[in-house]
Amino acid sequence: SATAGPGRGALIVFEGIDRCGKSTQCSLLLESLRKQGVRAELWRFPDRTTLIGGLINEYLQKQASLNDAAVHMLFVANRHEKREEMLRLLAGGTTLVLDRYSYSGVAYTAAKAVPHLGAGFCRSVEAGLPAADLVVYLDLDPEQSAARGGFGGERYEKVEFQKKVRSQYAALADERWLRLDASQPAEQLHGQLAAAVRRVVERAAAGEPLGQLWD
Ligand code: 2DT
Ligand code: MG
C-alpha cells in the first residue's frame, strides 16, 4: 500500500467558502484512505479546542470582539501551536487531511481589505508551517452556498463577504490546487479527487520533501 514507502504522510487541505461541502468531503476522503490502508487523520482549523481556539470561537460566535489584526494573529497562532505535532505525524507516515488551513487565513483576512493586512502580509506570518501537497478547492457560488439551508449566523457568513473571499481564493491558487465544481453531488465530487490524492500520497511515501509556506 501507499504507506509502505520510506517517506512521510501527505498534507491534503480542503478549502472553500462556508457551506461548500468541505467537511463532507474530508470525512469521505478519510474513510476511503483508511479503507486503502493509508494511515490518516482528519483535523480542522480553526482548532477550537485549544486556549487560542477558544478565543477564536468566541469571536466567530460574536461573543467577543477583536480587531482584524488581533484575530488574524490568533488564527495564525492556532496553526503554529499545532506545527510540531503536524510535522511529527507527517514524518511518521501519517497523512493529514485538513478542513481549512493557512489558505483560509489569507483569503478571509485579505477579503476584509484592511490596508495593512493584505495577502502579502498574511502569507508572511505563515512562514515555517508545512505547505500542503494538495489543496482541494471546492468552488461554489456564494448565492448557492447560502441557499444550502442558510448560514449558521457566525461572523463572515454573509453572501457579500463570501464573494470577496471567493475572489481571494482565486488569486491564491497555484499548481498544487485542484479546483472542483462544488455544486455536484458529494459522491461524484469525491470521485473527482481520488486520483490527485493517490498521486500525492504516493509521492510523499516515496520521499518527496514536504514544502514550506510560503512557496
Ligand atoms: P469553520 O466554519 O470551518 O469552522 O471556520 N477562518 C478560518 C479565518 O478567518 N482564518 C483562518 O485562518 C481560518 C482557518 C473561515 C470558521 C471561520 O473561520 C474563518 C470561517
Ligand atoms: Mg463555518
Keywords, separated by commas or semicolons:
globular; single chain; binds magnesium ion; 5-stranded parallel sheet; 215 residues; alpha/beta; 9 helices; 12% strand; binds 3'-deoxythymidine-5'-monophosphate
Give the gist of this structure.
This is Thymidylate kinase. With 215 residues, this protein is α/β, with parallel strands linked by helices.
Write the layout of secondary structure elements.
Blueprint: E1 11-15, H1 22-35, E2 40-44, H2 51-60, H3 68-80, H4 83-91, E3 95-99, H5 102-110, H6 119-124, E4 134-139, H7 142-147, H8 159-172, E5 177-181, H9 186-205
Helix pairs in contact: 1-9, 2-3, 5-8
The chain binds 3'-deoxythymidine-5'-monophosphate (2DT) and magnesium ion (MG).
The site of magnesium ion has 2 residues, from loops.
Pathway: Pyrimidine metabolism; dTTP biosynthesis
Protein name: Thymidylate kinase
GO biological process, one term: dTDP biosynthetic process
Characterize the structure shown:
The chain is an alpha/beta fold and 215 residues long. 47% of the residues lie in helices and 12% in strands. The chain has helices spanning 22-35, 51-60, 68-80, 83-91, 102-110, 119-124, 142-147, 159-172, 186-205; strands at residues 11-15, 40-44, 95-99, 134-139, 177-181. Strands 2-3-1-4-5 form a 5-stranded parallel sheet, sandwiched between helices. The longest helix has 20 residues, at 186-205. It is globular.
